[in-house]
Design a protein that fits this description.
The protein is built from three helices and no strands. By secondary structure, the chain is mainly α.
Length: 110
């Protein structure tokens, strides 16, 4: 695992978010093409359940990385890197929730 002051911490939050984004939308498309759920189920489908679990898992990971970087016992420029990376992890966690939570209300295969 990278130390909180490692420069790769800066893009890592957005990399994790973009991998999650590509994964959920590509898997949603494949699932809707291969096994679309009945329209009368609305948002209560297995597809939305899986997407919600993935959303919460990635949000939890990003939140843990935020806390780890924010509380890192570093100083100087290392503290700057750790704090900026923590902010990026927090923004990525909020973006994950913002994009992922509509599965609670919307049917998967529109």
């Amino acid at each position: 695992m990278l130390s909180p002051s490692h420069p790769l911490q800066l893009p890592m939050g957005l990399i994790i978010w973009s991998l999650w984004f590509v994964t959920i939308y590509s898997s949603l498309s494949v699932a809707c093409a291969l096994a679309p759920p009945a329209a009368e189920l609305g948002p209560r489908t297995w597809i939305n359940g899986v997407l919600l679990i993935l959303t919460f898992a990635v949000t939890l990971l990003l939140s843990l990385l935020f806390v780890r970087n924010w509380r890192a016992p570093v100083s100087g420029h290392q503290r700057f890197i750790a704090r900026v990376a923590a902010g990026i992890y927090a923004a990525a966690a909020l973006a994950t929730l913002g994009v992922g939570l509509p599965v609670i209300a919307l049917p998967p295969c529109l």
